[in-house]
Amino acid sequence: MSHSPVPSLGSPSRRLLLGSAAGAALVGIAGSAGAAAAPATSPLSSPSRRTVDRHVSYREWSGRELHVGRFSGRRHYVDPFDPTARSRSYDVATWVSPVVRPGFGLTELVASWNADTPGASWVEVSVRGRSGGVATKEYVLGRWCRYDPAQGGGIHRTSVRGQGDTVATVYTDTLATRSGHVLEQWQLVVRLMRPTGTRHTPRLRSVGAMASALPDTTRVPRSPNGRALGRVLRVPTFSQETHIGHFPQWDNGGEAWCSPTSTSMVLAYWGSGPRRDETAWVTEALPREPDPQVDFAARNVYDYTYDGAGNWPFNTAYAATRPRMRAFVTRLRSLTEAEEFIAAGIPLITSVSFKKGELNGAGYGTNGHLMVVAGFTRQGDVVCNDPASHLVRDNSQVRVVYDREQFENAWVPHSGGIVYVIHPERHRRPRPPRHERNW
């Protein structure tokens, strides 16, 4: 996360690159946390006029749908982040999704995956589609494994730069079409990489993608109150500020760690954070560290090309490595939809951006930041676990209430309503909207 007026290298500021209306375009947003409540409504009824042009569709496969055939291919790969690495041979098996036609011309796509990568195995996730009836090339959305090589993993997990062509490009983890181009359909390709001569075989548990086509707006109206008024989930509070200067090799803690800090809070809520033996390397280096799970998460979501801990699907893929957990990235159209998850007992991690003074009570401005939505007041305002902690190194400062309209405008126009959804496998998600299901 950055508090400077120029775009930082933090993850959510990708929206600036993607050509969306970013924080610099917003003017101050008036609003009061004590405003009268708007009438409650259901987001599962007919969509309002203001949301029908926010096209968002999420599609996911799991279980038998992820059957992978034999390892019939062969590939060589050199880890670009290992100075001593040589080309290594891998046996390759491939899973290809059905072709998805979302019913609109998509301009952005973010994939998610939940996978096991034992030993030195890893996975590569790509997408291809059709634009104007012509097939595109494959764009790589991530090369991923659970651990880095120093922990016994196969490669340094990484996004891939330099993939742009006349149709589309990839900004870290987001496929974005060029101006004047859309994709009418898309298809995921996942390659499972097993070191030749070993039996260390990756396993897919779920694979999905969010496709969207959003209006280029700088402001949205306050959404109607939904089903979660007065409900606040007991999500533990961790401050990213207490980690300033930690582990420079994984982006030095502090403001760069909003994403892993938020992910750690939600995993702690579900009782699925790392064990003491897993975080022993943290407490060895930092004996007084009260929240070693945050440092652990930062290492295990780190993208070595992006040089940061804010890669969206790397965070959800990490969360899904915890026992019996599932996680994915999608976009929501409004806080009314977010309330459906809170009502179902599922906290959300949101990507926001705002100038100082545009979000009352924050005390800072940011070009990109992740925070947890933990609930809603009876008036419909947003109860957040904000790891920026008013820029104070204190876990007790993390819980804050933000004005609904101000928060919605820091979130929906800027990141397009990006959320991480993290929950146990057997915990039921809320029923998705009938129109363009986005979860």
UniProtKB/TrEMBL annotation:
Keywords: Signal. CDD domains: Peptidase_C39A (cd02549). It comes from the Bacteria. Pfam families: Peptidase_C39_2 (PF13529). The keyword ATP-binding does not apply. Residues 1-35 form the signal peptide. Residues 246-388 form the Peptidase C39-like domain. InterPro entries: Peptidase_C39-like, Peptidase_C39_single_dom, TAT_signal. This is Peptidase C39 family protein. It comes from Terrabacter lapilli. The lineage of its organism: Bacteria, Bacillati, Actinomycetota, Actinomycetes, Micrococcales.
